Amino acid sequence: MRKLKLSNVVMSLLVLISVLTLNSIGANAEWKHSTNGWWNTEKSYITGWQFIKGNYHYYNIDGAMVHDATVDGYYFDASGAMDPNKDRVQVQDITMKAEERVYPLGTKDINVYITNNTNLDGGYGTRYKVEKFEDNEWHSLDFSKNATFEDLSIFLLSKDINKENCSLDTLKDFKNLTPGKYRIVKEISNSEGYTNISAEFSLQ
């Protein structure tokens, strides 16, 4: 009974987050669909958890809807809907950590270390998100129009560590960044599914 109540609380929170996300889109915006995922005329591709027509869906960092795969332990069927009848699998034990905990304002590059503690090889792309913690929640920061990511897949071997460089100066408001808590977010996958990992740091 306790497990059931906890699951209901988690699902309710996901619904609330999804509704707030979708309601933030302007009244004149139109939803459209392409091979990469759903997008609208006001914003770019939707990403992360979405509650659509009574079902939970997950859109990866490129805006593509996940299907026939597991994300953060939750299974999504062929239609892209989360299957509530399947038991949650263990989330992959993959972590990411910034090289330093504190950086001075104006720092252009952040090095992160991605550690694969599992017995499975994994991989990820070059894309990442930069978020800032404000008003008790994380906010995604926009990249400049000239920012590009190479279409590459990077292998993460079992029990291995990869070092990656993430640029901050490609952010749209890089010169206006203020002191505070930030994080780099990347999407990782292996044969068990997808998960998001993050590395927190501060700018002072």
UniProtKB/TrEMBL annotation:
It comes from Clostridium chromiireducens. Residues 1-29 form the signal peptide. Residues 92-194 form the Bacterial Ig-like domain. Transmembrane segments: none annotated. PROSITE patterns: CW. The lineage of its organism: Bacteria, Bacillati, Bacillota, Clostridia, Eubacteriales. This is Cell wall-binding protein. It holds the Pfam family Choline_bind_3. Keywords: Repeat, Signal. Cell wall-binding repeats lie at residues 46-65. It comes from the Bacteria.
